Amino acid sequence: MAALILAHFLLAACAAPLVRRLGTRAFVLLALPPAVTLGWALAQWGTAAAGGAVSWSLAWLPAYDVWIAFRLDALALLMVVLAAGVGALVLLYCVRYFDDGAPRLGGFAGNLLAFAGAMLGLVLADDLVVLYVFWELTTVFSYLLIGYDSERKQNRRSALQALTVTTLGGLAMLVGFLMLGQEAGTYRISELLADPPAASGTVSAAIALVLLGALSKSAIWPFSVWLPNAMAAPTPVSAYLHAAAMVKAGVYLVARLAPGFADVPLWRPVLLVLGSATMLLGGWRALRLGDLKLVLAYGTVSQLGFLTVLAGIGNRDAALAAAVLILAHALFKAPLFLVTGIVDHATGTRNLRQLSGVGRALPWVAATAVVAGASMAALPPLLGFAAKEAAFEALLHGNTVDRWVLAVTTVGSALTCAYTLRFLWGAFARKPGLDDTPAHRVSPAFLGPPALLAVACVVFGPGVSWWNGLLGAYASAFPAPAHPYSLSLWHGLGTALLLSAAAWAGGVVLFLLRDPVVRLSRRIAWPTADRVFGLGLLGLERISLQVTGFFQRGSVSVYLATVLSVLLGGQLAVLLVDEPWAGAVAPRLWDSGAQGAIALLTCAAALLCLPVRRRMKVVVLAGLTGYGTALLFVVHGAPDLALTQFCVETVALLVFVLVLRRMPVYFQETISRRRLFMRVPLALIASAVVATTLWVVAAARIAKPTGGALVTATADHGVKEVVATTLVEFRAWDTLGESAVLAVAAVGVTSLIYVHRRTGTTEQPERVEPVEPTAAGSPTAWSYGSHFEVSGAVADDTAPERTWLAAGRTLAPEYRSVVFEVVARLVFHPILVLSVYLLLCAENLPGGGFVAGLVAGLAMMARYLAGGRHELADAAPGHPGLLTGLGLLLSASTAALGLAEGAVLHPLTYETRLPLFGDIHVGTPVFFDTGVYLLVLGVVLDTVRALGGRIDRQIEREAHEKAKESGR
After folding, report:
1. Which pTM value belongs to this model?
2. Which one of 266, 323, 431, 504 is CB 3.0 to 4.6 Å from 471, fit for a cystine?
3. Rounded CA gap, 910 and 905, in Å?
4. Per residue in 662-713, pLDDT tens?
5. 3-class secondary structure for 698-729?
């Protein structure tokens, strides 16, 4: 199972090059994973129909009882057949639907296949957390698919609307999952349903949150707004996501949880009321629309309400009816969407008021639509009829509430019949007063996928009894009634058949009265949900602007004061109420005189920052506080922390220097006495509260320190350095996450500051007019001195000149320091060697990938400070983003290697003995740390390039413009 899901994502990653190479024919290859998955699922039919299941699991977070677990039972097999079978046909349909030159087709193809993989993962998941992960993946991929034509505002808006609604529901569902898992003591869905937790307020709240996610995903009122707008997506997306896959996810979740939680008090009222309302509102709205896709979209909303009702009733016959209706709906709604795409493709329009006589021009397309539409209207002998009969029978033999629901579903079925006739008439009938719409010929390959689905409606109508075993296996999870219903095309004359006939008659009447119905519908129409959604977002935006404008006034000091005030309020409240200092060990001022002296000097450096007006002095003094902290680490016996602090402080200091080149020398803000009297007490109180909190937290420890256990565990691994081993083995998850955050933050910040493209390679000199006639190359920011040209004769010196730096000739004489250039060049390679040493010795000596990367970055910064951006380009010719990406890839790949031993990030070691070298110990943590090293080096280089090289370019442009203005 996991391999099939992974195959979807792997081939999706290759979709873009495949489409570039093969054009639309690449969709044939992309259809292979869903097709293979369909074959595998059908091979498991016997096991699932017998009530068995096929399971696969892998420990993910065993300490939290979270597993990557998949399980194929009867309900999951039904959903896999639909997701894989319809998905494969839709991908084949794309071969003819798109042209080879369609823009961004490779990305679309990859997203569509990846969505299919995410959908398979969702229906196969046997763990709540895993289900949520795939749930959100379907949300993300649907956002990308709906927004495929991102140049159109409607597509962007519709994609964002779908993402907003379904994501908010998904977040609520996640909270519900966590509450259920905690209450039940397990996150395994099969175990949860086998032994559900006892009814309680927590369970009821959890179920309410889960239903919120399910209803928003399946577009149940009041969340139905996003589905009709999603019709802005290409037709294959509508046919797959909004007929057979994504919108079924919410119904699937309800059906999955119903055996264990249908008796929770709010389950039935919520699902029956909202499902019934959705069925009526969606069907009524479909009667007055002119776009064929919108007619089907609101019809889908109506059908989803019907499915939600059946899945939520919580008895055996209703569950059986829900399962067969899920199958029928996918088989008749997907071909109708695909036929709509063919009509649009052949005629250039989907407006049923403009179409006329298309059925004569495209008879086979019309025949396919008629068969699928007849199944949707529940006409015999098609599958839709058998499913509707099962639903009516289940509701007939229920309680009073079920009979009320039966009346609603009968009215809803009449609406379904009416908008089905409206769709077929609008798409294919010849209309008075309209000329026949020109339509080009449709190839059999284009019509094949919808025709095959329509044939399935015909075959599975009389053959619906073939599904008794599989669907009955799911329904058997509910208590069996005295006379269980069995799927069959014909159950004789009865009340259910009479209700079906009444629905057909009502539908025909509504269709014949379509013009008055449209006028009535428009006259009594409420404000559209889309308008309400837009007004709600507009109001939220205005409120956020007001709140933001009130709190964010552009003053850093106000921001800091606000943060400190909130922090102090919370901390002081806790300290005053709980009095946690009672019985705490009294704090010691210092352990040694050296600590006290360093602390006093550090505090003095911090105090000296207050009266200083020059920015550079403040930066230097603030840097001294950081170095003082590093010295405290040294005195306290923490060389790893000290080394890291020294490197971080040095890099930060140099970055400040780069930034300050473009800022005023002096602070511009003047502080009045009143503000000073407000800030000083706040700062003193904040420092006192933070110090007290740290003392209380340290004194409140009751557990045994883990230092001894870490030392023992480190020794067991055959190494000595506890800190580095902790970072790359025991807490490697934290390190990996922090590395990813560091990469994203660095890339985002440097990009936002100067809004520069990240696709360039080496910084090359710009072609600018030379300032000096004898200068080699173009002038740089470092070559512009106090004068733009050198007066006097230029000596003719043909003697060879020693060039210590590659960019030495671009430097202005008054800005050059030969000593610095020589030193920078001489220490460059030794510092790089030192960084590699710090990387490799980390298992037994202080060091590590983070520190080593900072040291290597300092070597690069030294080259830049000595020779400017051209010197940096010579020292590091590659793109910094490449190093960052390679580092993150190496760390993540090393983490994945641990799966060989059953767990992500499980360390692997190899020991041998080589001549001359002696014993060799190689472990995957070293490669993991190498990834961190490359990532940190890439981040430093990216920062220097953005804050150094980009500023250099600004200085060069300004100087060049001044030179032109002065006529030089």
Report:
1. 0.70
2. 323
3. 16
4. 778 887 767 777 777 777 888 888 888 888 888 888 777 777 777 777 777 7
5. HHCCCCCCCHHHHHHHHHHCCCCCHHHHHHHH
